[in-house]
Predict the 3D structure of the following.
Amino acid sequence: MSLSHNSHFIHFLKNKEMNLLYLAIFFITLGDALISVFVPIYLYQLGYQVTQILYFYLLVSIFFVTFSILGAKITSRFGEKHSMIISTPFAILFYIGLIFMNSKSFLLFYFLPLFMAFRALLFNYGFHLNFINHSNKNKTGNQFAFIQTIALLSTVVSPYIGSLIAELNFAFLFIISAIIMTIGIIPLLLTQDKCEKIDFDSNSIFKTIKSKKNRGNIISFCAYSMEASIGRIIWPIFLIIIIGELSKTGFIVSASMFISLMAFYVIGKITDKINKIKLIRFGTLLYFFGWIGRIFANTGFKIFFIDSYKNLSEKLVSIPFFSHSYDMAKKRKKYFEFVVYREIVFNLIRIIMIPILIVIFYINFQPFILSFLIASIFTAGYIFMD
């Protein structure tokens, strides 16, 4: 091991806050990764149409925006770590609710997106604030890449294991995921918490969103949100339609993730040494073709090859993208406001675009191809980040 590697490892051990955050993220991501790719598939196999599944996720974003300021107040009142802890019961309620879902579950169809929204609100606010407060400003890219590496380590085999459990019993999979996520909150209880003061409201947030000086960043936030949403909602359904079996689907997802794992550390080191904006723009060009490639993914082998390339090129964008976002937040006195405004933008674009996807699937003329084309177009938005 080189001297630079040793110094990074020693720094990791000394930073107790980041150390515990890494540990928490490992378990929380492990629990989430066992099931997240299978939620759209689960709903599809229950008999829901793709249009209905998209509407389900549209409700999540509507609830997120509606309660965004309330979520910020809860995070401010109880602290960033406690916010992540409080989010866990909402995740558990969501998973338990899925067990009782069927194609006629009207109440659950509307309540589960509410639970999912509160889980995302409280966890995202808490996580981002904790990372901003305790990461090294000169090693943001490296530390974010390290978190992503830990997250990916927990997710490399999770889809395959999750698929094997799901083939036996989906309910058992939901219960296991809930237990693992609960274990993940334990490290968050081992240090003191920090409460951030709220000195903003919904009016100031939307004023920030409408400001011309933020337009480039907003376009890039929209780019991330929509292409990621298509990847999380529509791509898994496409996989199960093409591949047909849960276990094969899980294996291909896990295998393609393993390929990108090898690039994380290198990209993180590069991110802290060169201009992040230039790296984002270079990565965007490569990532664009990852989405274009998915249009031609009509066999298991093609899916593995194309998805491996897509996951690898994505890291050239996502690591500098989030690292630069954290750098921007740290430069602002009101970095909590920045976190909230960014999360609201993520969900506002979904509220605008998901209805368009619903129409595309309702018309049913090459809906998957059109969805992947839309995702590829949105990737171009990353280049507007400034």
Q: What stands out?
A: Residues 15-191+201-384 form a domain with the Growth Hormone; Chain: A; fold (CATH 1.20.1250.20).
